[in-house]
Amino acid sequence: MAGGGVDCSDDARDRSLRPTLADIAELVRVPNLFTAPPDVVLGAALAAIAGAELAIPTGAGLAVVSVLLYAAGTTLNDAFDAPIDARERPERPIPSGRISRRSAFGFGAGLSVVAVAVAFGVAGGAGALVAAALAGAIVLYDGALKGTVAGFLAMGTARGLNVLLGVTGATAGAGDPVLTELGPALLAVPAVVVAYIAAVTFMAAREIEGGNRGAVVVAAAGALAALAVLVRLLVAVRPPPLETAAAVAFAVAFCWWVGRPLRAAYADPVPATVGPAVGACVLGLVLLDAAFAAAAGLGWGLLTGAFLVPAVGLARAFDVT
């Protein structure tokens, strides 16, 4: 549309739009999709620490659920934000006219419904319940709560629920669910993921303001809190030396990954530095997840961390924020 505006009432134009795969990939933030399965793998690793098991097909299915819900979240985010993006980010798929706002709402809603159905199919009622709660948190953030303290917590809660999603398919003993069996040290992990992502979301919400060092400090504090919980987990679980070393290595990599852009954003808090810091913190969650997962075994940590490779590769072609 000329001038980069968004006409949400032009039904004929909506029907004529034919988005390309590249347009859809940009809409769903395709690099970020690879940050969702690591949460699920982390949840399965926590269940393993608690003595439970997760069948590979079930885990794979739940990973797909997490990807579908993340894609739904980014799609609905842009659909709700289309009028704002028309002024501030006219190059995005909806305000640029490459995807209609109506189609984005329908696509996001459809992805959410499919995700809950798949969760029920692979993990039963517990999986569907967590997936539905996650979808609800996403809609609340994208719609009514964005930009508020409750909104930041809603986004963080979505990520914490994504970790718990990985627990829902695990069973212990005679097939008993383990979602309510996690002790305080294990439950602290999804809780601190909530805090970390809420802090990063707070920084992201102030990306275009400039001059806001406080938001960068909040994000850095979230990262430090996550590292403190990792130390607590390692002390409580006492994994073998190799697993401990792997967890520490992933933690160091996480500090390096997010520390450099956060330092740059603090030194000069403008959109050109804060934006990359937000992207680094989002992708850095994979390394943080891997550090926690390594406490359950070296394989858990490596599997979790491996998702960073496609995420970083695709981030060279598509925006993360």
From TrEMBL:
Keyword RNA-binding tagged: no
Keyword Cytoplasm: no
UniProt subcellular location: Cell membrane
Record-annotated membrane-spanning stretches: 104-123, 129-154, 161-179, 185-204, 216-235, 241-258, 270-292, 298-318
GO CC terms, sorted: plasma membrane
Alphabetic keyword roster: Membrane, Transferase, Transmembrane, Transmembrane helix
GO molecular function term, any single one: transferase activity, transferring alkyl or aryl (other than methyl) groups
Domain of life, source organism: Archaea
Membrane association type: Multi-pass membrane protein
UniProt name for this protein: UbiA prenyltransferase
Organism: Natrialba asiatica (strain ATCC 700177 / DSM 12278 / JCM 9576 / FERM P-10747 / NBRC 102637 / 172P1)
